[in-house]
Design brief:
eight-stranded antiparallel barrel, 1 helix, Immunoglobulin-like, 3% helix, 5 domains, single chain, 57 strands
């Protein structure tokens, strides 16, 4: 027991010694300087820290509250850097924190005095005759400031702005060169002045020179455009070629615009000279070369008899053309016949020859010699093509180029029930459309039609008419008429594509008369007199319109799905573009099908007033509106479901009829990988001019219902709907863009 008491006593002594050591003097931090220092803006203050009772010698970490920054930091010292500019006196606090025990800190407050001073020390050099802008700044005092030039002068043409802030600008256009010295005085809110000398050097302008040092290559038989550029002179500029020559087929205007279609491959060297409008004028020259690459062509893919139709605008208003020609598969066009009509000119049975060039990507051009008309085209696998006017006539028109079946040229081959859809303009030049159906036999027709215009719509109007195709025709050209009791007769020329399809335009003289102008397609009905509710199933539809409100007209395009059941219920789900604003359409309604293929809709959601359909076959036909916006479009059978792999291979496409004169028309060749990537080769005609060879790369996603989204450069470029793996339509996001059709 005695031993146990001794052991406990020893342990108690040891414990007392250990805990006394652990709880000895605490860590403390002392800063130097120990009292608040005062410095000026832009100055520095060195600070050191002494840490006591820290057996680890870990030192401190530093932090700052207030303006300025800390630099050269270590565990025992730091440098405080005051702000270079202050508008008033201020203070900052530096804190040192023990690394060993973060609960131990020491602080130092620093007073920073603002110093009234100039921040700017120099001004940029200016150039004679070139707008100049410079700024002088001061700080360290309270505003408002007053600025003035107290001696010397600014360069002629420059002025000191009125300013009460901490900076003042010097602007203008120098009218004299040289070195100009002056003194600027700034006075703060207390009336304290401060002055500093400045110099602005005005250098002579650089001499006129040609900025264009190289030209992009051209391609044989493809349109070429390049604009020469000059710098440092006085515009406008005048250009001439002083030596050498451009490649054959190209020319240069006095404005320096090189245009034309190179006729042969090779390279040409030449010297261009530019003259400016200064007094006296200056000149500059540069040697250039322009290479023309040989064109790898697919001309053999355009071979045989073709009919074509384009619809759009020209400088006179609504413009249409329809005709036919023979392509020899080697780039030559013969036996051409064309009819054109606009409010100023009706020209029938014009003969022409021409040439064409189809590139490896199936994008090409064709030119009608003597008519001054060129078309860009995208060629489909079946030999048909989408086309756009592509010349300097001012026409903005789109359409189709279709292979003709010459065995259908005799008049007797055109018989049976047909549906048609025509788009154009009324006598006042406003948007107008009509659609209908008729029975043809032996040169006579009878049927009914609906029409729609800005002044109102007519429905199920009966008409009679006739048609004629001259015996032995080699062009497939015929004429037809439509007579509506009490409304008169309208006349058309048409060109036979096949016994099932005709392309037609109105050929009444428009100029000086109250006549409309319309044209489009005539298609044979596959269920003559036997259409019923089951003739409608799953379709995609596309429409265009020109909606007018408060005196302004907005292009409107729609693209979506039309789902019908045999019980006459319908569901519409679509996307709409109104002047570049996208929205969704969703509606449930009903429909009624007449035996002649005329379909009426109720609550379709397609427009404020339900349109009418004229069917050409199951789930396909024309759409004609009944509202002032004049909706017009088509319906195409759809075969869902779809996957990303459904969009795979090469497709050729082109714009539908432009809605307004300011639209851009285009033809495209699209290549999709069946996963997510798609590439485009494009030719466009629009306000920016002719662009023959544009390329873009995008990506797509495709839902099972056939709706997809096309993205280019990170932005949505278009919504698209697939009718089948070989056909799709796109709804662009542009403000004036019409729907575009693509087909393999």
């Amino acid at each position: 027991m005695a031993r146990l008491r001794i052991l406990l006593l020893v342990l108690a002594v040891i414990s007392t010694i250990v805990f006394s050591s652990c709880s000895g003097s605490k860590i403390s931090i002392a800063l130097s300087p120990s009292t608040t220092p005062t410095i000026s803006q832009g100055d520095t203050q060195a600070i050191t820290a002494t840490v006591s009772n820290d057996s680890t010698n870990a030192g401190v970490t530093w932090s700052l509250s207030g303006p300025g920054v800390l630099s050269n930091s270590s565990t025992t010292a730091v440098t405080y850097v005051a702000p270079s500019v202050l508008s008033a006196n201020t203070s900052a606090t530096v804190t040192a924190t023990s690394v060993t025990n973060t609960g131990v800190t020491a602080t130092l407050s620093i007073t920073i005095n603002a110093v009234f001073s100039f921040i700017s020390n120099s001004l940029a050099t200016g150039t004679l005759g070139v707008p100049y802008s410079g700024a002088i700044s001061a700080g360290g005092a309270a505003t408002p400031f007053t600025w003035a030039i107290t001696s010397g002068t600014l360069p002629p043409g420059l002025v000191l702005a009125n300013s009460s802030s901490t900076s003042v600008s010097i602007t203008g256009i120098p009218t004299d060169e040289g070195s100009f010295n002056f003194t600027v005085q700034v006075t703060d809110a207390t009336g304290t002045p401060l002055s500093q000398s400045f110099t602005i050097v005005i250098a002579p302008p650089p001499s006129l020179s040609v900025a264009t040092r190289s030209l992009t290559n051209g391609t044989e038989q493809e349109p070429y455009t390049a604009q020469l550029q000059a710098v440092n002179g006085t515009p406008p500029y005048s250009w001439v070629i002083t030596a050498g020559s451009l490649p054959a087929g190209l020319s240069m205007s006095t404005s320096g615009l090189i245009t034309g279609t190179p006729s042969a491959p090779g390279s040409s060297s030449f010297t261009v000279q530019v003259t400016d409008s200064a007094k006296p004028s200056a000149t500059a020259s540069v040697d250039l070369s322009l290479a023309v690459d040989p064109n790898a062509v697919n001309d053999s893919k355009l071979n045989g008899n073709y009919a074509f139709l384009v619809n759009g605008f020209d400088p006179n208003g609504r413009f249409m053309a329809v005709g036919s020609f023979v392509a020899d598969g080697a780039g030559n066009i013969s036996n051409g016949v064309i009819d054109t009509n606009d409010p100023a000119n009706l020209q029938l049975n014009q003969s022409f020859t021409g040439s064409y060039l189809i590139g490896l990507e199936n994008l090409g051009t064709m030119t009608f010699t003597g008519l001054g008309r060129t078309f860009a085209l995208s060629l489909m696998a079946d030999g048909n093509a989408r086309i756009i006017e592509f010349d300097t006539t001012g026409a903005q028109a789109t359409g189709v180029l279709l292979k003709q079946d010459t065995s259908a040229f005799p008049q007797a081959q055109i018989a049976g029930s047909f549906a048609f859809g025509f788009l154009g303009a009324d006598p006042q030049g406003n948007r107008y459309a009509l659609a209908g159906e008729f029975a043809a036999s032996g040169g006579t027709t009878s049927g009914e039609l609906d029409s729609d215009g800005s002044s109102g719509a007519t429905h199920a109007v009966a008409f009679t008419g006739g048609y004629s195709i001259p015996a032995g025709t080699t062009s497939g050209r015929g004429t037809m008429s439509i007579t509506v009791s009490g409304q008169g007769t309208t006349n058309y020329s048409f060109y036979v594509v096949s016994a099932e399809e005709l392309l037609a335009i109105e050929i009444d003289q428009v100029a000086g008369q109250s006549r409309r102008l319309a044209g489009g397609s005539i298609l044979k009905q596959s269920l003559p007199g036997a259409f019923q509710a089951s003739s409608l199933d799953t379709s995609i539809f596309e429409t265009t319109a020109l909606q007018t409100s408060a005196g302004s007209a907005t292009p409107q395009s729609q693209l979506g799905t039309f789902t019908a059941t045999a019980s006459t219920d319908l569901a519409v789900a679509a996307d709409q573009n109104s002047g570049g604003t996208l929205s969704s359409i969703s509606a449930n309604g009903t429909y009624s099908v007449a035996s002649n293929g005329r379909v009426t809709l109720t609550n379709s959601g397609i427009a404020a007033s339900d349109p009418v359909l004229y069917l050409t076959g199951p789930s396909q036909g024309f759409i004609i509106g009944s509202d002032p916006g004049v909706i017009f479009g088509s319906l195409e059978a759809q075969t869902p479901p779809f996957t990303a792999a459904s969009l795979s291979g090469t497709y050729a496409g082109g714009s539908n009829v432009p809605i307004t004169t300011g639209a851009t028309s285009q033809v495209d060749v699209a290549s999709a990988d069946g996963v997510s990537a798609v590439n485009f080769n494009t030719a466009t005609n629009g306000p920016s001019g002719l662009n023959p060879d544009l390329t873009s790369t995008g990506s797509y996603v495709l839902a099972s219902d056939g709706r997809g989204v096309l993205t280019v450069s990170g932005s949505t470029a278009a919504i698209f709907y697939m009718a089948s793996p070989t056909e799709f339509w796109t709804l662009p996001t542009t403000a004036t863009g019409a729907v575009e059709f693509f087909q393999q």
